[in-house]
Design goal:
Chain A is of the alpha/beta class. Chain A is about 40% helix and about 15% strand. Chain A is globular, with a radius of gyration of 24 Å. Classes of the chains: A alpha/beta (about 425), B mainly alpha (about 290), C mainly alpha (about 375).
Chain lengths: ~425, ~290, ~375
């Protein structure tokens, strides 16, 4: 999906992906590469703003393909005065980007060197901390900001148009060693959307889930959950904030019963402290009653209430997958991530799963995002689909659009279109 | 001069720890088990060489040879009888079995040699001391021999692991036993060889330890065993240079703590350093950290 | 015998059955002891057995329920023992009722052991697996080393502490309570079999109540799959630490119960071998199996005493028994035999009250 129009215009400027951050992100990424640093040093005197050509080619700003990165949109100094609210917002975010890069000493050194030479004065000024030394620098240099266009290709279902999207990823990326496992991942998921994330094996789909749930901390980019930045949150905190997930290789608490598994999912919904438990205070009995009641209600979704006392590890495969979904739902998420929910299920079970995923969305009014190789399922229930290949989004759109997309067909060697 | 002397003593003690730690680390790297009986194999090595040299009055070097042979055989036997049936068991089961073997060795030694400490005659007794700086710094023959032995053993082990076919098999088994088996490597015999080498080294360590600290009791091996184990973890368990580095550092820390802070808290300081290192670098100095895949 | 279908069967399988075993065992031993049919060695050993049972149950909370290998449990016992003994000496000066002194000393010991557990646990919980084991071992040795050099005395001016020597306490009149490597000296022997019985019940209640609650489920969730536990919003460090600190507090009480059964206790009693011994009880009783802990601790504390007639061979036999119990079930021929027995006789079918064995989840 490569439409340039932004489909969520209601949202304020402060919330929009901004160019400065994009550039910062891009620089961070390149800061890892010593050759780039070399390039900076070498060209600092001849090109004040910026970047030698090979640098720009290495990290194109927008990967959607419809807009070329605007090379040198230099703006006058007035536009970057730190008192202007949106810019301050940007500046803060820029700083945050830098904090993230802290472990990378090379980058910090690079920033220092550049500001010493005065070539980085624009950024230093844009930081706008109000420090006098910096203000002085700004007055001397010509503070101009390079502006880059927004990748505004998000799509959401029409019914969710007037609500904050449950998930918004901007320029999300992670490196493993030198490998960009996920790069420049931009995605918007509507409040009650069923979204699909597909792609060939090894495309980085599960890595995206791991980034969203902070199993891995992103190297670059922002994740907004219901409009709130999840930067700095740990996995449990993200779960409490509203992202629940299942795992590709099932991760149940195999030695515990089905009901206990769900009760553990309810951990943050029903409260009871250690002392109340040890001394069996009234609060304990109330909470246990609540755990039991809610667990059975949740198990009823997949008609598993009669299995409540079975040890989870002894369940058949399909039931284990269903239990994992129930456990995730028990955390009362805003966004449910399903990693290959239909893997190992027979067609009847898959059919049932589809009904249930829709039912979950309708009953709980939450968004569901799923990774799946079963194209029947994906094309049937997903409203918006993103296709990932080599860590990059190569297409976004409705099932029909995806099925007709040449790039997707190539990525899958034609198999996806054939199956669907 | 005091500083230099302490340093040399520290390296000497550390060399003994390093040789013991090599056995721990190799067995851990290949069989993924903590062989708590390793320290007691040292004690057996000490007693065997004691019997040959002091009781029978034969050449001490012959005593070392016999000790190495006996301990190697002992290591292989222990592995075959006690550990091999537990290949698929939980690591705790193996750990408890190793503790059982440790009790067994200690109590067998108690029955044979009694609880009274034996005074061990150094294998290099009568060898000349090394005098430096006009006799201000005297280094005993034991110290020199221990440090040299450690260096030779480490070089030999690294060469063995990297250059020989068996060494390659060992590395393969430590990476992935299943895949190694599919490649036609005999995993069981590789593990046996590892135990044999580790136990042989333990015998040498026992002789060197008793030469420097000549009190031999059934529990002689226990504390050096634990120290060497912490040395192996300190250096990054599974890594051969790590074991040597960890052992020598531990020895130096222990001697310095004794000399400059006080004898009574030296153990506490050694373990405190270990804890601090592990908290800063959870996989030890030279260990690799492998995160769980999600 | 008992099937899970009857009302009694259900109760038997749950915590009730465990409490019942303890009460019945206490009654039997008490009757035998008062009838004089028990050897005096065993009678003197009864509080010690109770102390080991408590220590084993509390270590099982760490090893079995929380899934962490701890090799320093005896260290926390020694913290509880020594702080408890010092507290008891102080309380005796003002309170005349021995059992009240004992209870207060128990609570003091538990609090200090819990503090030690917290101090050790906060850094330790960053590690896992064998590294955690070695660090707990190291902490146990550090605690022992400190206790070996601790001198505490009490006179009219109050408590005196020193880390160098008894002379350094600078007391003119008064008692030395803890005397360095000689440990606690002149301990009032307040431990009784009844007190031990109550301690076992308290330990059981704390551990079983904790396991069967929101916190306990979280602890077991972290053990079974820490990544999944985090994904449902459980703070893994908090719950691992909770199990560790609760276990330390209980170990402290067990340590005091043990120490107050003798009139002198040396710090070496609580060295790494003691930690290993308790771990052996846990593993032999079944990892995560609380009832098994009680039985194995009792049998294995009594066994060396029963074997005493074999004098120097007894520890050898003990070692061989230990190896055999661990290795034999894994020998194929023995396995077939055990399967056969379990098949034929329902009594031997496993019925853990708590899901035990930390096995890998289904693929």
């Amino acid at each position: 999906m490569a439409e340039p129009n932004d489909r969520i215009p209601e949202r304020g400027g402060a919330n929009q992906p901004d160019p400065e951050r994009a550039r910062a992100a891009e620089e961070l990424q390149n800061g890892l590469d010593p050759r780039v640093e070399e390039a900076y040093r070498g060209t600092a005197n001849e090109d004040l703003y910026g970047e030698p050509d090979d640098f720009r080619q290495k990290a194109p700003v927008a990967r959607t393909g419809d807009e070329a990165p605007a090379p040198d949109m230099d703006l006058p100094a007035a536009d970057t005065t730190p008192d202007e609210p949106p810019m301050r917002e940007e500046a803060l975010e820029l700083e945050r980007e830098e904090e993230r890069a802290e472990p990378d000493k090379g980058m910090a050194a690079l920033l220092n060197r550049r500001s010493r030479q005065g070539t980085y004065a624009a950024q230093a000024a844009a930081k706008g901390r109000g420090s006098k030394a910096r203000t002085a620098t700004r007055a001397k240099a010509t503070p101009r900001t390079r502006m880059v266009p927004l990748p505004s290709d998000g799509i959401v279902p029409e019914r969710d148009l007037h609500q904050t999207p449950v998930l918004e990823c901007r320029h999300l990326g992670i490196d493993f060693g030198g490998l960009h496992a996920v790069e420049d991942f931009n995605l918007i998921v509507g409040k009650t959307e069923i979204a699909g994330l597909i792609g060939p094996n090894g495309a980085g789909k599960t890595t995206v889930f791991n980034l969203l749930t902070k199993v891995y901390q992103p190297t670059r980019g922002t994740i907004l959950l219901d409009g709130v930045d999840t930067h700095g949150m740990s996995t449990p905190k993200v779960a409490q904030a509203g992202i629940a997930r299942t795992f590709q290789n099932i991760r149940l608490f195999a030695n515990l019963t089905v009901e206990e598994n769900v009760a553990i999912g309810l951990h943050n919904q029903v409260r009871c402290g250690m002392w109340s438990s040890i001394f069996r205070l009234p609060k304990f009995w109330v909470s246990e009653h609540e755990f039991h009641k809610q667990a059975l209600e949740l198990l009823d979704i997949f008609s598993m209430a009669d299995l409540a006392d079975v040890t989870a590890g002894n369940l058949p495969y399909g039931a284990q997958r269903r239990l994992e979904i129930i456990r995730a739902l028990a955390t009362h998420p805003k966004l449910l991530l399903l990693d290959e929910p239909a893997a190992g299920m027979n067609p009847v079970e898959t059919e049932e799963l589809m009904t249930n995923i829709r039912k979950i969305r309708d009953d709980f009014q939450i968004a569901v995002m799923l990774i799946e190789h079963d194209m029947d399922l994906v094309m049937n229930i997903c409203e918006g689909i993103a296709v990932l290949n080599y860590g990059k989004v190569i297409a976004k759109g409705t099932p029909e659009e995806i099925q007709g997309n040449q790039q997707v067909i190539e990525a899958y060697l034609g198999s996806s279109a054939g199956e669907a | 001069m005091g500083f230099l002397e302490n340093l040399i003593n520290g390296v000497s003690l550390g060399s003994v720890y390093a040789i013991i730690a090599l056995g721990y680390t190799m067995v851990y790297g290949i069989a993924r088990m903590l062989n708590f009986a390793h320290g007691d194999v040292i004690m057996v090595g000490g007693y065997v060489s004691f019997v040959i040299a002091s009781s029978m009055g034969l050449n001490p070097l012959f005593g070392i040879l016999v000790a190495v042979i006996v301990c190697t055989a002992l290591g292989i036997t222990i592995e075959k009888v006690a550990y091999k049936p537990l290949r698929q068991s939980a690591s705790l089961t193996v750990l408890i079995t190793a503790i059982g073997v440790s009790y067994l060795l200690q109590n067998t030694a108690l029955l044979i040699w009694g609880a009274n400490p034996k005074v061990y005659t150094s294998v290099v007794a009568g060898w000349p001391q090394l005098q430096l700086f006009d006799g201000q710094l005297i280094i005993s023959a034991e110290t020199v021999v221990t440090i040299c032995a450690c260096a030779v053993i480490m070089i030999a082990m690294v060469t063995f692991i990297h250059r020989t076919k068996i060494g390659k098999a060992m590395r393969a088994v430590s990476e992935d036993p299943g895949a190694a088996r599919l490649m036609g490597i005999n995993v069981d015999s590789t593990i046996s060889i590892t135990f044999a080498i580790g136990s042989g080294l333990a015998a040498i360590a026992g002789v060197l330890l008793c030469s420097s600290y000549p009190t031999l009791m059934p529990t002689t091996g226990a504390m050096p065993g634990i120290k060497a184990f912490t040395a192996a973890v300190f250096g990054g368990i599974g890594s051969i240079p790590g074991a040597v580095l960890g052992g020598i550092l531990l020895g130096i820390i222990e001697i310095f703590a004794k000399a400059y802070i006080g004898t009574q808290f030296s153990d506490a300081i050694v373990f405190a350093v270990l804890i601090i290192v592990l908290l800063i670098k959870p996989s030890g100095l030279l260990g690799k950290y492998v995160p769980e895949k999600v | 015998m008992v099937k899970g279908t009857t009302v009694f069967g259900r109760l038997w399988k749950g915590p009730f059955g465990t409490y019942l075993i303890v009460v019945v065992a206490y009654a039997i031993f008490q009757v035998l002891a008062s009838a004089g049919s028990l050897p005096s060695v065993i009678v003197g050993l009864l509080p010690t057995i109770c102390a080991y049972i408590s220590a084993t149950i509390s270590l099982n909370l760490v090893v079995g329920i929380s899934g962490e290998l701890s090799l320093g449990h005896a260290g926390f016992m020694s913290v509880g023992a020594y702080t408890g003994i010092v507290a008891a000496t102080c309380y005796s000066a003002v309170i005349d009722i021995p059992w009240l002194v004992f209870i207060l000393a128990m609570l003091t010991g538990a609090v200090f052991a819990a503090i030690a557990g917290f101090v050790v646990g906060v850094p330790v919980m960053r590690l896992s697996g064998d590294y955690l084991a070695i660090v707990t071992l190291a902490f146990g040795e550090i605690i022992k080393n400190i206790m070996n050099n601790l001198y505490v005395g009490l006179d009219d001016a109050g408590l005196h502490f020193s880390f160098s020597s008894a002379q350094d306490l600078h007391m003119t009149n008064g008692n030395i309570i803890i005397n360095g490597p000689q440990g606690a000296v002149g301990v009032e022997q307040l431990s009784t079999f009844f007190g031990g019985f109550i301690l076992v019940l308290v330990t059981l209640a704390v551990v079983l109540n904790l396991i069967r609650s929101r916190s306990g489920r979280a602890i077991m969730a972290v053990r079974d799959n820490s990544i999944a536990a985090e994904s449902v919003g459980i703070n893994t460090t908090k719950y691992r630490l909770m199990a560790f600190v609760v276990a330390s507090a209980l170990a402290g009480m067990a340590g005091l119960m043990y120490a107050m059964n003798y009139n002198a206790v040396v710090p070496v009693r609580f060295d790494y071998n003691a930690s290993i011994l308790i771990l052996v009880y846990v593993v032999l009783g079944g990892i995560g199996n609380i009832r098994g802990s009680i039985i194995s601790a009792t049998v294995l504390v009594v066994l060396p005493e029963v074997l005493r007639f074999m004098s120097e061979y007894r520890m050898l036999i003990y070692a061989i028994v230990l190896i055999a119990v661990m290795v034999l079930p894994n020998v194929p021929a023995v396995q077939r035999f055990l399967d056969y027995i379990q098949d034929k006789i329902p009594f031997f079918r496993s019925r853990d009250e708590v899901p035990g064995d930390v096995t890998e989840g289904a693929e």
